[in-house]
Write a structure and sequence with these properties.
Layout: H1 4-23, H2 28-31, H3 42-71, H4 79-108, H5 115-130, E1 143-148, E2 154-156, E3 171-176, H6 185-201, H7 203-216, H8 221-232, H9 234-247, H10 249-259, H11 263-266, H12 278-292, H13 296-308, H14 316-338, H15 360-372, H16 382-394, H17 400-423, E4 432-434, E5 440-442
Parallel strand pairs: 1-3
Antiparallel strand pairs: 2-3, 4-5
Helix pairs in contact: 1-3, 1-4, 3-4, 5-6, 5-17, 6-9, 6-10, 7-8, 8-14, 9-10, 9-12, 10-12, 10-16, 12-13, 12-14, 15-16, 16-17
Length: 457
C-alpha cells in the first residue's frame, strides 16, 4: 500500500498549521500597553523586534520551501524522509518561540503599574554605570532590566547565546523582586552591569594568564591555593570591583544585604560556584574599596562583618582556607587595581572608576549640599546618586525608609526625564554621559599616560 499521498497531505496540513500559529506571534509593539515612560529604549526595542522578525521571516521562508518541495519532488519521497524534514521545521518553530519567551517577560513587565516605569529608570542607571568615554565602554549596548523571583540577580550579556540558538541583541539584566525598590538595588544592578563591562574589556582573557602564572611560580602551597581560588572566582570578583568602584561603600553594603544568609551558607564554599563564598567575598569587597577610596570605614566594616560571622566558628578546613585567602588579599587587590589590559591602552583598571568624585568625604559633602538643595538630586547622574545615598546610609545620615522613598522617586524621575528628552528635538552632544533632566557629569576619556597623572571624572 502506497502511503506517500496520505503522508504528503498530512505533513502539508501540519506545515500550513505552523504558518498559522507563527502569524499569531505579533511584535511586542503591537500588543504591549506600557506607558511611554516605562518603555525600553528605542535601541533596545528595535534590536529585539528586528531579531525576532528575522527569525520569523527565515522560518516562513523555510516552511514555504518545504510546501513547494512536497508539491514537487518531495511528494515522491519516502514518508520517513518527509517527516524528517518536517521535524526540522518544528524544531526551528520552537526555537522562534523560545526567542520570543526570552524577552517576553522583560517587555511584558513594562505594562505593570509603577513597576514598568521603575524598570525603565533602572535601564537609565545601568547605562550610566557602564558608559566610560575613551574606552570600549563608550558605546554601550541596549540594556533592558526585568524582575524575577529568587534571591539572585543575573545578566544575559549582549551577543551571548540564547535558548534555541542565536545571540542576544540586547543586554538583559534580571533583578530580584525583593530588592525593588530597596536597600541593595544599586549594588545588584551595577554588579550585573560589571559583567557586561568585564566582557567588553576582555578582562578575563588578560587577567587569568597573570593569575595562572602566579599560581605556577608560587613559592608556597598556600600562595598557590589562594591564586588558584582567585582565578576560579575572577569573573564575580571583577563584577564586585566594578560595583564598589562605581558606588563606593554602597556597593559593599548592598552586597552584605544580599549575602546575609545563615552562617552555614556564609562560611562554606559551594562546589562549582563562581562566586567567592560570602564571608570572603565581603571581606574582599572591603579591601577593594579601601584600595580605591582609602578610609578607615572599610576596615571598620570588614571587622563588623567578621563579628557578624566569626570565622572561628567555621570547620577547620575552611578556617585554613580563609586565612590563606586573607593573607593573599593585599597582593591580589593591588594586582586587580593596577592591571593594564590591552583594551585600556595602557591605563589601569582602577582608572575606569570615577575616583575623583567617589571618595567618602566628597560623597558626604555632596549629600549635605543636597539636603539643602534637594533639586540637585534630580540633575545628578544615577550612579553618583546611588553612591551618595549609600555613603549617607553608612554614616547613619539617612534612614532606610527615607532612602527607599528617595530612590523610588528618583528611579521614576530618571525614566520620565529620559522619555521626555527623547521626545524633545535633538540637542548638540558633548563629551559627557547624559543624565536625567538633561544634566551631565563630565567624563574624561582615559588617556595613555602614567597612571598617577590620569584624571577621571
Amino acid at each position: 500500500m502506497d502511503l506517500r499521498p496520505a503522508a504528503t497531505a498530512l505533513l502539508e496540513g501540519e506545515a500550513r498549521a505552523l504558518l498559522t500559529r507563527l502569524n499569531r506571534v505579533r511584535p511586542f509593539a503591537l500588543h504591549e500597553t506600557m506607558v511611554p515612560a516605562a518603555a525600553p529604549s528605542a535601541a533596545a526595542q528595535g534590536a529585539i523586534e528586528r531579531f525576532l522578525m528575522e527569525g520569523r521571516s527565515r522560518l516562513r521562508h523555510r516552511v514555504g520551501a518545504y510546501l513547494e518541495w512536497l508539491e514537487g519532488p518531495g511528494g515522491d519521497r519516502d514518508p520517513e524522509w518527509q517527516q524528517h524534514q518536517f521535524s526540522l521545521l518544528r524544531w526551528e518553530f520552537n526555537s522562534v518561540l523560545s526567542h520570543f519567551d526570552v524577552f517576553s517577560e522583560a517587555v511584558t513587565q513594562r505594562s505593570e503599574h509603577d513597576v514598568g516605569v521603575q524598570l525603565a529608570g533602572l535601564d537609565v542607571a545601568a547605562v550610566d554605570a557602564l558608559v566610560t568615554p575613551g574606552t570600549p565602554l563608550a558605546d554601550p549596548p541596549p540594556i533592558i532590566c526585568y524582575l524575577a523571583r529568587g534571591p539572585g540577580g543575573a545578566i544575559r550579556r549582549v551577543h551571548t547565546r540564547i535558548p534555541g540558538g542565536g545571540r542576544s541583541p540586547v543586554s538583559l539584566i534580571r533583578i530580584p523582586r525583593e530588592r525593588m525598590v530597596g536597600y541593595g538595588i544599586g549594588s545588584s544592578l551595577v554588579h550585573e552591569v560589571g559583567h557586561q563591562a568585564v566582557a567588553q574589556l576582555g578582562l578575563l582573557g588578560s587577567l587569568r594568564p597573570v593569575l595562572y602564572d602566579i599560581e605556577r611560580h608560587a613559592g608556597t602551597a598556600a600562595e598557590r591555593t589562594a591564586f588558584h581560588y582567585w582565578g576560579l572566582t575572577l569573573s564575580e570578583v571583577l563584577a564586585d570591583l566594578f560595583a564598589v568602584g562605581k558606588l563606593g561603600i554602597g556597593g559593599t553594603l548592598g552586597l552584605m544585604a544580599v549575602v546575609s544568609l545563615p552562617r552555614r551558607l556564609v562560611l562554606a564554599p559551594a562546589l562549582n560556584d563562581p562566586h567567592p563564598f560570602p564571608y570572603i567575598r565581603v571581606r574582599l569587597s572591603c579591601a577593594m574599596g579601601d584600595a580605591l577610596y582609602p578610609h578607615p570605614q572599610w576596615r571598620q566594616l570588614s571587622a563588623l562583618w567578621a563579628a557578624l560571622y566569626p570565622p572561628h566558628r567555621a570547620p577547620r578546613e575552611l578556617r585554613e582556607l580563609t586565612a590563606i585567602l586573607e593573607r593573599s588579599m593585599p597582593r591580589f587587590v593591588r594586582l586587580l587595581a593596577g592591571h593594564r589590559p590591552p583594551s585600556l591602552s595602557g591605563a589601569r583598571l582602577a582608572d575606569l572608576m570615577p575616583r575623583s568624585s567617589r571618595t567618602p568625604a566628597l560623597l558626604l559633602s555632596r549629600y549635605r549640599r543636597w539636603t539643602r538643595q534637594p533639586e540637585l538630586l534630580r540633575t545628578a547622574p544615577p550612579t553618583l546618586v546611588l553612591a551618595v545615598l549609600g555613603q549617607a546610609r553608612a554614616a547613619s545620615l539617612i534612614t532606610p525608609e527615607e532612602e527607599s522613598r528617595l530612590l523610588g522617586e528618583l528611579i521614576t524621575h530618571w525614566a520620565l526625564s529620559t522619555t521626555l528628552d527623547n521626545l524633545a528635538p535633538q540637542r548638540g552632544a558633548g563629551n559627557c554621559a547624559t543624565s536625567p533632566n538633561g544634566a551631565a557629569e563630565k567624563q574624561q576619556p582615559i588617556p595613555t599616560r602614567p597612571a598617577e597623572r590620569i584624571r577621571t571624572r
